[in-house]
Amino acid sequence: MSQSKLKIAFYWAASCGGCEIAVLDINEKILDVVQIADIVFWPVAMDIKYKDVEAMPDKYIDVCFFNGGIRNSEQEHLAKLLRQKSKLLVAYGACAHLGGVPGLANIANRKEIFEKVYAKTFSTANPEKIMPKTEVHVKEGELDIPEFYDTVQTLDKVVEVDYYVPGCPPAVERTLFAVEAIAKGELPPKGSVLAPLKSVCDDCPRKKENKKITKIYRTYEKAPEPERCLLEQGIVCMGPATRGGCGARCLNANMPCTGCGGPCPNSPEQGAAMISALASILGLEEKKEKYTEDEVENLINQIKDPLGTFYMYALPASILRRKVVKE
């Protein structure tokens, strides 16, 4: 990197905006960042237009932190533009990295989503069933909005990504590690996830006794013991299948891990890894080895939302990717 200040960009695509706040969560450390970097593009905080980015020379930006998946044509355009203008492109947060919570919409296509949102909800009054269009004529002229895609994609499905910072949103440690590694020129090999190799379980201080469970509870159905492994209390915790580096914050707050750190390095299919982990401890009886189909179905039915439980953040990045929807 140049000895002069780094030129940093931030962009917010299909996500909730929490990653934008995560940048500010570094608190007083922001003063250290501004000593080494200038922010040249950050639409949520600066008055800057896309044409200003288009006018920048290629590779003008040293590093762009891109959060959010790709849900529409505008986001795809910006992903390609910022890739062109940036030396390093970082998928920042679970949505850019894995598709995130917006990626759960991949169980439907655009038609189904629009019908649900603009026609079928109880609070919607739209008797003519008018749906959004990419172009519409008004007296002032033509208006256009981005095209809404059928599928939410991860950032690396659209452009080449150099590094990934996991989390929903990324923990302060992960943001600082990424900035400092970039500033010092101490980055790992291209394509790396900027987080430790261990799982969330390795960071969790709770006592693990390798106990079997016979019942699964939702978080509101049981007050967990604060020092025992949540999974061994029957509360689904994604810790065994989730990459650490977050300090096990949710576990320390007496809540289960939901998997925002993404898969562990040796288990790229996060949902399948967690299903396997759960299957190893769940049974109707502690010592029973074989079950009938009905008994297996009863065990599975204890998990009220399998997709949302095992693929809350990672459906677009998984082998499943999306539901096949027939017109």
Structural features, described:
By secondary structure, the chain is an alpha/beta fold. The protein has 3 domains: 6-101 and 151-184, Rossmann fold; 109-149, no CATH class; 200-310, no CATH class. It contains 12 helices and 9 strands. It has helices spanning 18-24, 30-36, 50-54, 73-85, 94-98, 110-120, 172-184, 200-203, 249-252, 270-279, 293-300, 306-310, and strands at 6-12, 37-41, 61-67, 70-72, 86-92, 135-138, 141-144, 148-153, 163-165. The strands form 3 sheets. Strands 2-1-3-5-9 form a 5-stranded parallel beta sheet, with helices on both faces. β6 (135-138) and β7 (141-144) form a beta hairpin. The radius of gyration is 22 Å and the shape is globular. The chain starts with 5 loop residues before the first strand and ends in a 17-residue tail after the last helix. The model has no long low-confidence stretch (mean pLDDT 92).
Descriptors:
327 residues; alpha/beta; two-stranded antiparallel sheet; Rossmann fold; 3 domains; 9 strands; globular
Query: With helices defined by DSSP (H or I, 4 residues minimum), what is the helix count?
Result: 12
For the largest sheet, list the strands in their spatial order.
2-1-3-5-9
CATH A-level architecture of the largest domain: 3-Layer(aba) Sandwich
H-E string: EHHEHEEHEHHEEEEHHHHHH
- The rounded distance between the terminal residues' Cα atoms is 50 Å
Overall mean pLDDT stands at: 92
Count of domains: 3
Please write the CATH class name of the largest domain. Alpha Beta
CATH H-level superfamily of the largest domain: NADH:ubiquinone oxidoreductase-like, 20kDa subunit
Structural class: alpha/beta
- Shape type: globular
Runs in which pLDDT lies below 50 for 5 or more consecutive residues are none
